[in-house]
Amino acid sequence: MIESPDVQATLPYYRISINEAGVSGVKFPIKIERKGQIIDLSATASVFVDLPEGRKGADFSREIESIYLVISSHKLHSIEEVAFKIASLALEKMPYSTISRVYLSADYFKKGKNDAGMEIFVPYTIFSNSVVKSEGSRRLSIGVVVQGMSSCPCAMESTRALMVSDFPDLEEALKRIPTVTHNQRNRITFEIETPDGNLPEADDMIKICEDVLGGPLQSLLKRKDEAALVYNSHKNPKFVEDIVREVAVKGAEKFADFPLETMIKVSSESDESIHPHNAKAYMSLSLREIKEQLDKTKS
Predict the structure, then answer these.
(1) What is the mean pLDDT of residues 244-267?
(2) Domain boundary among 106, 136, 166
(3) Residues of the domain holding 87
């Protein structure tokens, strides 16, 4: 029997440590048992470990093996649990590493009804990032990606000024109503990371994002639904900066009893309709920092 040499365990030519070595874009199905229901998800994961300067390579097959052992050997109740178990097992299988990271995302559909009473399915992305260290610490996160419509407040005020110039007798009315502006398809990415594994429900995070945007994008919109979506967006025009701040504040209020070290990360990106580029804003603050900044604003 021919034994294959363990090339990964040999010395590298350049003895320099590596932060992340592993596999990315691994696709697999998972079943989540939650609230008495079985949720089928199509997941994609990337699994990485750090590599010491004296080792040529990581054992990538052990990372893949960790994925399949977790999804086949455990009852799973959340995607953050899946990510954590994979990260923990990968670190156990590769004792030369001190840290394991797993990035996991999945397509997620929620059933609902539009204003006409028709049953619809709204698509989202949910994701979890897990960091496990050999000395025992860990950080887990849960995140959502929600699409909605946003309207530009700057263009609205500029067009309002033009309309007042063209129709001076309507100036008072034009000051009170939403006017012409350009719209964008906006994507909110909302992630909460905690040091203790106590994480919120993804559905609660989705609701926060949809409340800020005024509702989700839907494939099926009848005339009444379409009119309501556009009108509500124009009544509440927002920059990407406004969206990020509002999601962060509503998240801090909703999850106020979480540890103060909890990280709240929010990004908002708009596919611009009048520019060849996008608009984007991002923030990452601890729950403590958000509360302190809000307290300063109130004082």
Answers:
(1) 96
(2) 136
(3) 1-136
